Amino acid sequence: MATTGTKKWWKNAVVYQIYPRSFCDSNGDGIGDLPGIISKLNYLKNLGVDVIWLSPVYPSPGYDNGYDISDYKGINPEFGTMEDMERLISRAKRLGIKIIMDLVINHTSDEHEWFKNALAGDPKYRNYYFFSDTPNNWGSFFGNKTWTKTENGDYYMHLFSEKQPDLNWQNPDVYDEITDVMRFWLDKGIAGFRCDVINIIYKNSIKNGRRRLILTGREHYLNTEGCHELLKRFNKDVWSKYKTFIVGETIFVTPNEAKLLCDEDRGELDAIFFFEHMDVDSRGGIKWFKKQYKPNKLIKIIDKWQNALEFPANYLENHDQIRSVNHFGNTKEYWEKSAKLLCGLNLSLKGIPFIYEGEEIGMTNGDFIGLRDIKDIESYNVNQAMKRLLLTHKLRRKLILRTSRDNARTPIQWDSSENAGFTTGTPWLRVNENKSFINVEAEQEDEYSILNFYKQMIEFRKNSKAITEGVYRRVAAPNDVYIFTREAKEERLYIYCNLSSSNRHVEFYGDRIIFGNYHAYDRDNFYLKPYEFRIVASNI
């Protein structure tokens, strides 16, 4: 990383996440691919995107849709070739768009050559993973067992699927292998990595853990000092040699722990994804069991993290979360206003905004009919766990359909045709029927669409010193209303967000409304309409 105080290119960037399988299919096999992404680069440029975060495109058996990697230096034939990847990097660069890749290094696929060699008894590669004659009592993130028995009678450890054996980061050979992978891709011209579950990769031991409701054993791998040391070495040995942006996905992280991971002076990560706001409606941190969503709690969580970190990685949805307009909005009465408000909120906060594919047109959760429509391995494992708990099929169906990761993985709705312009073949995952009115083509032609609101808000953000560089401060407001200021030299903006389905009386500050999701404003009435977003400027 650069010396403290040096301006870094990513600090004013807008990042767009692409889930390749669902973005655009160029060859009619029903699966999105790299040529499909290339065909849409001008669309992303016109949207205002600076960086693409590309979910895994490596060779993979696909048990966890690419997060089970069998070759870190290759391209999955489903997505194209290495030449396609090089062409994507080159063409994006010409448009001024950088690419960061997903780096999944907590585990490999069980079909990776390293693991195959380990199962064959090669002592070198057995030490790449965790094998034991006696499994510990740790819990799994996918609700399945954490240890799987081999043909030799011993067991190997996996915090996720049995198809994803955990790497042993106490082994220096693993460090050498993965840093070689990093250099391979950085030398091809990518700009950095999004590091998957990065704060759990280093296990201090594999002893039994203290019994917990969820994830027994996490005291042995969550935010360990060994992990911090690894990140510092990655930075010193590799990342600092390139002009990179490194963002980490961090699980169960507190603000204080997050500061250690992305404090610039420590030389670890540039930014982190936290999850607390995603769990605002979860019972006991278990996302499958919901409680009533309260906007005011979301506001408090976002405010806490805005104050805690210098450059938060801000997001409201991704490939592992349900659609934000379903999560935090009202899709029945205020779908459009909800989507625009969430856009305005995300792009007004301090930090780096991340937009997930389809978010910019207000895509909603999938309209799956039954459990057979679900492809997600996590949902499958959770369904099996619920069966063991004797939950009825009706209840399991309800819980999984509303929470499954597949809700955010339905194909992008480019137009209103049969397969939404995503493919000429059969889509790998059911296309939402609301493609008839939620699609790129229709919204490009509508001056007041969600898509054009995103374009305008991104342009507004880039031209505002207050938003890109200014300080953040929350202003007192009624419940469900989020008011905060962004202030730089000679510019102060008041951001108003009514996160409720009711009018809310508020006190207005500033001189003039300069941006919002309603086409007409009545300044004499001191209230915000349902899901109203507005930016009010004030002279300093």
Automatic annotation (TrEMBL):
SUPFAM superfamilies: (Trans)glycosidases, Glycosyl hydrolase domain
Domain named Glycosyl hydrolase family 13 catalytic: residues: 17-409
Transmembrane domains' residue ranges: none
Keyword terms, alphabetized: Glycosidase, Hydrolase
One of the GO biological process terms: oligosaccharide catabolic process
The keyword Mitochondrion is assigned to this record: no
Single GO MF annotation: alpha-amylase activity
Tree of life domain: Bacteria
Stated family: Belongs to the glycosyl hydrolase 13 family.
UniProt cross-references to PANTHER family, sorted A to Z: ALPHA-AMYLASE FAMILY MEMBER, NEUTRAL AND BASIC AMINO ACID TRANSPORT PROTEIN RBAT
Name of the protein described by the UniProt record: Oligo-1,6-glucosidase
Species of provenance: Pseudobutyrivibrio xylanivorans DSM 14809
